[in-house]
Amino acid sequence: MVKTAGKRVKIYQWTENGLDIQVTKKAIRNMYLRVGADGSIRVSAPLKMPECDIRRFIRERMDWIEEHRKKKGQNLPPWEIYEGQDREAKKQECRMRLEKILPRVIQECEQKVGVHAEEWRLRDMKTRWGTCNVEKKRIWLNVWLAEYPEECLEYVVTHELVHLLERGHNGIFYGYMDVFYPRWKDVKTRLNSGVQP
Questions:
Q1: Confidence class of residue 37 from pLDDT cuts 50, 70 and 90?
Q2: H/E run at residue 132
Q3: Starting at the edge strand that comes first in sequence, how are the strands of the sheet with 2-4 ordered?
Q4: Is the dihedral of CA 197, 102, 79, 88 positive or negative?
Q5: 16 phi, psi to nearest 5 deg
Q6: Is 52 helix (H, G, I), strand (E, B) or coil?
Q7: What does the alpha-carbon distance between residue 106 and residue 102 come to, in Å, rounded to a whole number?
Q8: Cα separation, 57 vs 172, whole angstroms
Q9: DSSP state of 145
Q10: What's the CA gap between 168 and 187, in Å, rounded?
Q11: Is 139 in contact with 161 (CB distance < 8 Å)?
Q12: Residue 39, number of CB atoms within 10 A of its CB
């Protein structure tokens, strides 16, 4: 039992149907079940709730748990799917795949936009698909773009090139996007939704 801000809280783990579940017992009246973005399962229960009642509560909701874990897993970005050595191996694979197709995609996009970036680099990024240093004309791309359809790479490359014409995200910028990559809104939605082929 631990105390948090003067309140008693008991936190422990157990396995049910092969799934790891975190149980938190605290001063509440009802039980709550949550499935995290990473597929983790957490149950909050009253301090005096018997273990058998908590287990029954979980077992009765197994179908719901599996359904939500599946949905969460489908929407995870690729950098959250892999861990440890698997993640590093997958990242290197992504880098090699992008290095093969990127010169062609860059050339095609630069011809459409009418600008040229002095330097292109790949980086493991968790919050952005690409960045552009306007002064140095240097563009960084997220290495995990390799896990998405090529149109997503085309969209991000075009987006970053347009920053060489218009620094900010404003009406002028999006006007350029409409001209150079008319489907950009649909592709952006697909990319940010985590939907992969």
A1: low
A2: strand 130-133
A3: 2-4, 7-16, 19-26, 41-46, 32-35
A4: positive
A5: -135, 125
A6: helix
A7: 6
A8: 55
A9: G
A10: 20
A11: yes
A12: 18
